[in-house]
Amino acid sequence: MKAEFNEQVLLKGLAKNDAKAIETIYKNNFTMVQSFVLNNNGTYDDARDIFQEAMIVLYENAKLESFVLTCQIKTYVYSICRRLWLKRLQYLNRFTTPVESLEETVSVEEDIDFQQKRNADFAIMERALGSLGEPCKSLLEAYYLEKKDMTDIAASFGYTNADNAKNQKYKCLMRLKKLFFSQYNIGE
């Protein structure tokens, strides 16, 4: 029971971006992933890349309240890394057996696909935000990222009142939405 409790503490720590939890997960799992990648036509840098991708998947899932880990963290991380590495080998034509025919320890295909799609969407949003221009970019960042209220934004940006700032934020958001979806549709 203590091991199970420890795993839950690590997951909660990971979700809160706790350095100690991240370091513990890294120390407990990287060597295993490194051995797997090195024994399967990979390099140390490949192992680091694959492990980092797996940590991102685990981190994103740990932040979800609906996520329930039904195995050890080690098993979950290994499964993600194994799946990612075998897909990469297959892509590079260094592995001949189809990935689908390999026995999986834990099914993580949907998690990986979801995470890759989400990362692509974030990249498109970042490009759209970058091409939005000022003052819209700064205004949206002030509201959504810095969590400033409309009164503060009105004062910072020189609007006469919070309602005018809110109206401008709406216009900027519509421009961002238009930029995002014009790039999103090109990417598909």
How would you describe this protein?
With 188 residues, this protein is an all-alpha fold. It has 2 domains: 2-106, Rna Polymerase Sigma Factor, Chain: A (Orthogonal Bundle); 131-187. It is built from 8 helices and no strands. It has helices spanning 2-15, 19-38, 44-63, 73-91, 109-130, 136-145, 150-157, 162-187. The longest helix has 26 residues, at 162-187. The relative contact order is 0.08. Mean pLDDT is 80; it is low at 95-102.
What name does the CATH topology of the largest domain carry? Rna Polymerase Sigma Factor, Chain: A
Q: What's the total count of β strands?
A: 0
Number of domains: 2
The low-pLDDT segments are 95-102
Mean pLDDT rating: 80
SSE string, helix = H, strand = E? HHHHHHHH
Shape: elongated
Measured on Cα atoms, how large is the radius of gyration?
Answer: 21 Å
| Span between termini | 47 Å
Give the amount of beta strand, in percent: under 5%
Find the structural class using helix and strand composition: mainly alpha
Largest sheet: number of strands, sense, barrel closure? none
How much helical structure, as a percent, in the residues?
A: over 70%
Oligomer: single chain
Tally of separate helices:
8
CATH class descriptor name of the largest domain: Mainly Alpha
Provide the CATH architecture of the largest domain: Orthogonal Bundle
